[in-house]
Amino acid sequence: MTLDPRTTLLRDGIASRGLEGAAAAEVYLDPTPMTCLVPAAGIRRRPDAASEQMDQLLFGEAFDVTEEEGDFLFGQARRDGYVGFVEAASLGPAGPAPTHRVAAIRTYAFAEPSIKSRAIGPFSINSLVSVEAQEGRLAKVAGSGWITAEHLAPVGVFEDDAVAVAERFLGAPYLWGGRESLGLDCSGLVQAALFACGRACPRDADQQSQIGADLSPNAFGRGDLVFWKGHVAIGYGDGDIIHANGHHMAVVIEPLQTAIERIQDAGYGAPTGFRRVL
Which end of the chain, N or C, is less surrounded by CB atoms within 10 Å? Predict the structure, then answer.
């Protein structure tokens, strides 16, 4: 069995205890559970703020740590399994279990139970929070401030239309490795839409091409996924797709055939597959 290094908590002979019997290592450690304390934190390839961002943690998401290097911690995002380095200042000890997720595309927390107090954030859709108290329309969340209660949904209560979720990102700038409402990439958009609908989803397009069921191009429709080498888009309906892409540098809706022709003309080939995931 070949382990994917993107989702295998193993580095320089040190591995997570859970990999015993699956991956050879000199030392196996019990990871230390930590939590993201900021609206979004980059998961980077190397312990360097200038290094490539491969993924992001959102507020309240768990990160299991095995090593410390300088100002960074090496570990694994529990929600999508991605491995890399996160700035230590963005993480803190694991807190109470989440009771709610952010259901609005983005929202602010306020330092006091007043919308006139100092704003913190913004926090993106799918961030995880633990509500400690409520005053009027504002809910106090652990590790931050007071968030509009209508912008939260109890854990286990999900959307039922992934396309409608993706549509709320229209105009968001393209950001490599991003999955926050202020910027995200193609697979980040797919993951965000599926997470909001209660569906587990891996991080990268090639991983996402393995979920769901294979689909004939003629059957492609709303909510289905179309893949190219290194890219993924969501069927919007009536022959259109919605996707975050480097051509527009934003989340856009465009005809599937237009995207096929443009991507092929750019030398990236025809679609590699179509999948039905919902």
Answer: N
The residues, any chain, with a CB within 8 Å of residue 1's CB and separated by 6 or more, are 22
DSSP-derived 3-state class of residue 233: strand
For residue 2, the model assigns a pLDDT of 85
d(CA 183, CA 18): 33
Contact between 54 and 4 under an 8 Å Cβ cutoff? The reply is no
Q: CA angle, corner 246, sides to 107 and 54, nearest 5?
A: 65
pLDDT band (50, 70, 90) for residue 1: low
Using CA atoms, how far residue 225 sits from 34, 82, 100, 194, 212, in Å, is: 33, 21, 28, 11, 9
Long-range contact pairs involving 251-254 (C-beta distance under 8 Å, separation at least 24): 251/166, 251/169, 251/170, 251/171, 251/172, 251/174, 251/184, 251/189, 252/170, 253/167, 253/170
User: What's the whole-model pTM score?
Assistant: 0.96
The Cα 166–Cα 196 span in angstroms is 10
Contacts of 170 (CB under 8 A, 6+ apart): 242, 251, 252, 253
Mean residue pLDDT across the chain: 97
With a cut of 80, say whether residue 48 has pLDDT above it: yes
Instruction: Respond yes or no on whether the N-terminal peptide bond of residue 93 is cis (omega within 30° of 0).
Output: no
Dihedral Cα 32, 33, 37, 42, nearest 10 deg? 80
Q: Work out the average pLDDT over 201-218.
A: 97
Closest CA to 187 of 206, 169, 160, 168: 206
